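Weekly sync, protein design subgroup
Attendees: M.S., D.O., the rotation student, P.L. (late)

Item 1: inverse folding check
M.S. brought a backbone from last month's batch and wanted to see whether the design step gives back something sensible before we order anything. D.O. pointed out we never logged the input encoding, so this time it goes straight into the notes. Structure tokens as presented (335 positions):
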């Protein structure tokens, strides 16, 4: 048996995982790379089967109070036209997505306090009353009573990525908050009974291989149900302008290692990876989820977290049936 296979088996065994154990897998090249991807794909098939879960994502506001160094929505960005969907528009789009056949809706926005605890709660309540959609919230850091209230209103899941497990790097890139605060939010959401989604960016300037390994180990520690792993994409209007994009291949390796370590969690082929052409690849090396936008086309350009995002208009039912067809061509079933 090859050395890499031994390493992957040890990661899969899940005992005493350390960054040092994960790093050789993250550094795999050539035949070792194929061994890694095939191992992860077998684990995906064993623990998740051939179903690909399709998640509709509605980006309902690009207002943000934060100053993340990498994100185009940062509060100080005066070059971005801001939009905010009304509660009626949000519920209307959600119901349209349900009608088109989507089963899960991710409601995502910048940290926009216009959506108060009550306002967002009512939106969730109405969507849950009028549809069968599972609702995931992805609205960042809030007081814990907001999280508790939204859970009572029917929210099922919460996506809040840890972004990087390097505390000093996190604090440098998020001057409005702190790593400890982010972690506290994640732990509280888990305690409240949400299915918790975390995740991180690959290739964030300053990230090392050890941090990347720690990013993956952090997912295990948090007992996440979902992990969004995407490449960092440089936005020219941000503090981190001029840096290189994260590598799509390293992102795929991180997805593969996460599958091997975490077994049955939901791992999306993230939208950031999709724009780098990695959708099909990710589904072949551990991913079992796809996020598909249902944001009305007039707003898509404005949700400018990084350049190159897909903005084309398409009827929601058609968009979903095309995706299901493409998945069936890969021997997978879109749900
Ligand atoms: N405000 C919410 C939060 O903090 O969780 C959700 C919205 S935030 C814009 C969604 C995600 O976009 C972040 O978790 C981050 O990983 C990703 N993101 C932002 N800028 C990015 C960039 N330049 N490259 C890749 N991903 C980026």
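Designed sequence read out in the meeting:
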């Amino acid at each position: 048996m090859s050395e890499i296979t031994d390493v992957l088996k040890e990661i899969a065994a899940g005992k005493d995982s350390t960054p040092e154990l994960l790093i050789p897998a993250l550094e795999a090249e050539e035949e070792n790379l194929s061994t890694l991807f095939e191992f992860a794909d077998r684990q995906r098939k064993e623990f998740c089967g051939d179903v690909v879960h399709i998640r509709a994502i509605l980006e309902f506001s690009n207002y943000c109070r934060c100053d993340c160094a990498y994100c185009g929505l940062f509060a100080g960005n005066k070059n971005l036209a801001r939009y905010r969907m009304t509660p009626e528009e949000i519920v209307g789009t959600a119901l349209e997505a349900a009608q088109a056949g989507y089963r899960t809706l991710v409601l995502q926005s910048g940290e926009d306090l216009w959506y108060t605890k009550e306002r967002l709660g009512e939106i969730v309540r109405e969507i849950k009353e009028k549809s069968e959609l599972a609702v995931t919230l992805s609205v960042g850091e809030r007081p814990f009573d907001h999280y508790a209230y939204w859970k009572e209103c029917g929210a099922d899941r919460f996506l809040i990525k840890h972004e990087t497990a390097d505390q000093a790097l996190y604090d440098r890139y998020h001057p409005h908050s702190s790593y400890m605060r982010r972690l506290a939010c994640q732990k509280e959401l888990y305690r409240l009974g949400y299915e918790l989604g975390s995740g991180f960016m690959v290739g964030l300037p300053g990230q090392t291989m050890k941090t990347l390994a720690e990013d993956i180990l952090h997912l295990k520690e948090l007992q996440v149900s979902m992990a969004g792993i995407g490449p960092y994409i440089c936005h020219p209007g941000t503090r981190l302008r001029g840096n290189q994009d994260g590598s799509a291949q390293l992102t795929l390796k991180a997805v593969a290692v996460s599958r091997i370590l975490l077994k049955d969690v939901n791992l999306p082929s993230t939208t950031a990876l999709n724009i780098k052409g990695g959708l099909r690849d990710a589904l072949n090396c551990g991913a079992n989820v796809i996020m598909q936008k249902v944001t009305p086309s007039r707003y898509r350009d404005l949700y400018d977290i990084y350049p190159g995002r897909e903005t084309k208009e398409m009827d929601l039912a058609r968009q979903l049936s095309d995706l299901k067809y493409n998945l069936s061509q890969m021997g997978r079933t879109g749900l």
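Discussion: DSSP finds 14 helices and nine strands in the chain. The chain has a mean pLDDT of 94.
Action: P.L. to compare against the previous round before Friday.
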